[in-house]
Predict the 3D structure of the following.
Amino acid sequence: MRGIVGYGAYVPYFRLERAAITSALGTPAGKGARAVASYDEDTTTMGVEAARRALSGAPAGSVPDLLYFATADPAYLDKTNACAIHAALDLPGSTLAVDVGGAVRSGIGALRAALDASVPALAVLSDIRTGLPGSSDESNGGDAAAAFLFGGEDGQPVLAEVIGHASSTDEFLDRWRTPGDPYSKLWEERFGEHAYAPQVAAAWADALKAAGLTAGQVDVTILTGVHPRSVRAAARTLGAATESFADDLSATVGTSGTAHAGLMLADALDRCEPDTVIAVVVLADGASVFLLRTTSALAGHTSTPTVGEQIASGNTGLSYETFLTWRGFLRREPPRRPDPDPPAAPPSMRHEAWKFGFRASRCEECGTRHLPPGRVCLKCGAVDHMQDERLVDVPATVATFTLDRLAFTLSPPLVGAVIDFDGGGRFRGEITDCDPATIRIGTRLTMTFRRVSTGLNGVHNYFWKARPVHEGVTKSDGGMI
Amino acid sequence: MASRGIRDRVAVVGMGCTKFGERWNKGADDLLIDAAGDALASAGMQRDDIDAFWLGTMGSGISGLTLSRPLRIDYRPVSRLENMCATGSDAFRNACYAVASGAFDVAMAIGVEKLKDGGFSGLVITTPPEDGTSGELTAPALFSLLAPAYAQKYGVDEAELKEVFTRIAWKNHRNGALNPRAQFRKEVPKDTIACSPIMAGSLGIFDCSGVSDGSAAAIVVRAEDAHRYTDKPLYVKGMSMISGPATGAIDPAYDYTTFKECVVAANDAYAQAGVTDPRGELAMAEVHDCFTPTELILMEDLGFADRGTAWKEALAGTFDLDGDLPVNPDGGLKAFGHPIGASGLRMLFECWLQLRGEAGERQIGTIAHGRKLALTHNLGGSPGECVCYVSVVGSEPSA
């Protein structure tokens, strides 16, 4: 039986309240808040976070042979973004990692490819959504990632089995973005409704038929797409019970494009009991439907943290001006400091296990941990008696810290900290996703994969930062960020 | 560490130092020509009397040509070296060893830095291609890590500690106001210092040293030849240059309240010089006050104050111009400015003036009271990973 054996989602820490757009621009932007990828995140780093959670929730020893990374906002073209995810997950070289990006629909493609594979396959869906200031893409979009590990043939417990799926494909013009443009353009809305309606009907009917179900037998309906008017129309025509429709997270996250069906599915799996029929319906340049049935293995299982917990622990102190700055729509005066040097290719490759895998070394003679890994022990001087040790999931504590107001960053002040890991080892690095005023000696931290900077040559510098362990809703008490 | 030293085997017989500051009308070439010329004049020498040159610069030129081209040096050995903020001092150390070894009779150590052509605020260091994992913290941020650690370890209130930093900056600006070569020549009220814009942690702009252009030079000969050139030579008593294992940032045992490199270098230099009570024997000290917390902690590392007490001594005025042990009588990096490659030799220049009684209105009283030794100190890098230099020089050969 093949299905989902592990899943995880990532909702970034910051929220933009739509009222902030309304008050800045004077045009109504709706209610609620949207999730915002931080200045040091991109679709690759968010994908890493979601995939870490998917793998940590999967049965021990689950290693995907395939990794499909889908996004409509790739950090690189021509170069495979999935390779950075592969490296940050510390996957073996024999795992094929590929991008299937470009369009929102590629998210469904990645899920289908991972499902159809005959080996353990990881689908990572990630997106950063925005549009021109004042656009509905800006206010209704949201940033998030989700990841699903498919498998089960080798007797691994499957959390949800795929019992039917169908798609309908057609060429029509709804939304488009020329490569290099920072926002998408849309055709007139009513035409899209005309184009999508038959697509949804066909895929829905075919999927139900494949699963041998009727619309009334669907317990949870996940409905999303790139064309809100058609999504609303589909809700009326599918025939699924009204109470079956899952919260579309528009009030709390926004619609996260390529990732959104995955995010909603992760949220549903967090909440569902065994033997629940879930329908996933996605409208994007056609329509696709997946029908899943949860299994007894889901009893008591959630992702960690759950989607709901992540939504609840966001920081709503983000100002609209900062949001525009982070997304590149507001160019601000940089500090009178040189641009950060981009990482060089050969040292980055030599130190891949450290830079991407966050592998430290532990002295086999005296047990001292070294970050970054070194060949000579700082304590006993032993040479080349080191054991690799991956520390991404080891909690840490602030030993001392500083707020650097001179450093080059899109989000001053840069929070620098000396970080001591549980079980030994010290690392001097950066703290992200925090209100700087709340950092103290003793603050507990976890590691997160980030885009530290981008060089003038376009090379992204990926590395790990620390973030405070967020619990419950936080609101910046240092004022707007 | 076995370190024999070269006590009293070489002497400084001539020195020069340019005005430090924003020298928009002078390039590194000009600064070198000026400092070298002043040093030669003070020793009564000509350029061709120098047998070999050691040039210290962090980034204002590469190779010996940086010096030999502007001075039109007549086919002589010129070594160019870099050792972060200890660059100028290390050039001096190598020149001393060259003369002590007998390889040369006369050597010049010269340091230069032209920082203000860079176009940026603060110091910019070019690093080799890297993997992008070494972090983006600026120098003030790295040194600001000392403040909360010191406050916590010794139970000092952070606001009180800020007063200590303010007083250190105030003292150095006060000294610099008396120094015609200093970058900043005005006393600065404590309120202005305390309320200056924050750069990192608790450090404001007035807690940071001046970014500056400048050059300084020294001429070294064998001690027995010194009186051929001057009646008042400076004898080199001890020099120690220490590079640490750079484990502070990765070893949880390091607590950010000391520079072990400086403790080791000071003990080594004192042993070479025969100094057993630095607080009581030294007439003055020129220390590396790159940021105000650095000077505070150095008072303990160099043995001028007991652990956990330097903050009280600083407040009490122990290290003022008229205090028990004047520290940075020329204004220090804070007021004199910090052209990296020149700074170590600039410190030696103040020892030269003070021990010879030529420091004018900032002449310290400790020398009249019979003290004949002075200390210079540099620190390059950041807390937990640095290089350190300590020297002791004196106005009389040992008995």
In short: Confidence is low (pLDDT under 50) at residues 472-481 of chain A.
